[in-house]
Design a protein that fits this description.
single chain; 479 residues; alpha+beta; SH3 type barrels; 4 domains; 6-stranded antiparallel β-sheet; 5-stranded antiparallel β-sheet; 12 helices; 31% helix; flat
């Protein structure tokens, strides 16, 4: 044995000496001798085996969580040396004896591993190396919520809507019979002084509750109302949505009203800065409104949305309102009589030279019926936005302005402003010829029999329509 070991050592020294004298490196020399792969300076190995160093490096790489390195050693693809193979005490013999290295196939990859290998170059995918990391990754994926970019105005609208609805809880809304009211008293007692009226569906701000009474502030009135006739809190939120008037105030120079809720839709009409429109429906980024030309849509980006409620009226305000209405009525009658004398010699033909058609206008004051008949002369004439000519063209408020001007009454050129003139009329059933019938952004003259005459639109001009063809916001009596 000693002789054999000496021969092996001598052979090793001779081999290394020969390699150095020939100028070959370990790698190059290994290729020359039986085309064996190099195992580095440790030892040579046979063609179908691997080295102890390679196995050690593979184990170290696993500990460092690096991708395992498969040594190119002529083994079948997908095979690796068994970790159970152990070298003998003599490294050289281990390299020569092929039986000392046992080759075993790599177990099939799990789905997670396969997925990780396939996605290793995908920036959106991470390879999971241990169960704790895997659980964490899955939790992140499950709680991920995609976000949608919203404009500043959209975010602002949502915030305002939430604040407004929260504010509804603090309302006190009268819930009594139509056209009636709840008395507002100075103290929480039926014997206390009456200081105002909270009309049906009118609202005030809740201050406190005291023995079945709510203390409220509504308009200029601060006092107590009987709780049994009002609602507040969560009940008020739902009622407020029904009885409140949703308003869109134009905050751009001129706003286009579209036939459909789209910027590609045809323009129905134009409304100026500050115009207040009643909203009948709210859509995604659009609101449906009523204008002279009919129902249309405006973008929420160019209006300010709010909800309006009728407020309480103090005793002093009621007295002042009634007195003012009476003075205006008397002044209008006087002006109309003067105008009537001045125009008594005028021809009763219309603008087209045809004989005037007198329509049945129902009951009412003679002056109101006369004004209604005068307005009917101009049916068929054109509608012109901003116009006031009864013959060449007028818009809705320009038409009523010019008709009343003929009778010596001055009206503002604004549908919304005209809605605040004269005396309030309870409903369409009590309207009289000559009354102003007011809508959202529109106004006409009542002629009786449930009809109005008005400058309707560019398409139809001045025409007769049913008074309730759209939602009536108010009826005002000038005479």
């Amino acid at each position: 044995m000693k002789y054999i070991k000496g021969m092996v050592n001598a052979l090793t020294v001779a081999t290394l000496s020969s390699m150095l004298l020939s100028g070959l490196s370990i790698d190059a020399y290994s290729k020359e001798i039986k085309k064996l792969p190099s195992a580095g300076f440790d030892f040579f190995m046979s063609e179908n085996s691997t080295s102890i160093k390679a196995i050690k490096e593979e184990k170290d790489s696993k500990k460092n969580k690096d991708v395992p390195t498969i040594v190119s050693n002529g083994l079948p693809n997908g095979a690796t040396p068994s970790a159970s193979a152990t070298p003998t005490s003599d490294p050289l013999k281990s390299g020569i004896n092929e039986e000392l290295v046992i080759v075993e196939p790599i177990p099939e990859s799990t789905p997670e591993a396969t997925e990780g290998q396939e996605d290793e170059n995908n920036e959106e995918t991470s390879v999971i190396d241990n169960p704790s990391q895997e659980d964490e990754e899955i939790e992140i994926e499950e709680t991920f919520i995609p976000t949608i970019s919203k404009s500043t105005k959209e975010i602002e609208r949502e915030q305002l809507a939430r604040l407004e609805e929260e504010g509804f809880k603090n309302l006190v809304i009268a819930q009594v019979e139509r056209n009636s009211w709840v008395n507002v008293r100075k103290e929480a007692s039926e014997d206390a002084e009456k200081i105002g009226k909270l009309y049906d569906k009118s609202a005030g701000e809740f201050i406190l509750e005291e023995n079945g009474w709510y203390k409220i502030k509504s308009g200029s009135v601060t006092g107590f109302v009987k709780a049994e006739y009002c609602v507040t809190g969560e009940e008020a939120v739902e009622l407020a949505k029904k009885v409140g008037t949703r308003i869109a105030t134009v905050d751009t120079t001129t706003l286009k009203v579209r036939e459909q809720p789209s910027t590609e839709a045809v323009t129905l009409g134009l409304v100026p800065m500050g115009e207040v429109l009643t909203v009948s429906e709210e859509l995604d980024g659009w609101v449906k409104v009523n204008i002279e030309e009919g129902d249309g849509y405006v973008s929420m980006d160019y209006v300010k949305l709010s909800t309006e409620f009728v407020k309480a009226e103090s005793k002093e305000e009621e007295e002042a309102r009634l007195a003012k209405e009476e003075r205006e009525r008397q002044a209008a009658i006087e002006a109309a009589n003067k105008a009537k004398k001045k125009n008594s010699n005028n021809s009763s033909t219309n603008s087209k030279g045809k004989k005037q058609v007198v329509y049945a206008t129902g009951e009412g004051s003679p002056l109101g019926k006369e004004l209604a008949n005068y307005a009917l002369q101009f049916v068929g004439n054109p509608y012109v936005y901003g116009g006031t000519s009864l013959t060449n063209g007028a818009d809705c408020s320009g038409f009523t302005l010019s008709v009343y001007k003929h009778y010596g009454v001055s009206l503002p050129h604004s549908a919304n402003a005209q809605r605040n003139l004269g005396r309030a009329v309870e409903n369409l059933g009590t309207a009289q010829p000559g009354d102003l019938v007011c809508y959202s952004g529109h106004v006409g003259i009542y002629i009786g029999n449930g009809q109005i005459v008005h400058a309707s639109s560019r398409k139809t001009g001045i025409k007769i329509s049913k008074a309730d063809y759209r939602t009536i916001l108010g009826i005002r009596r000038i005479f």
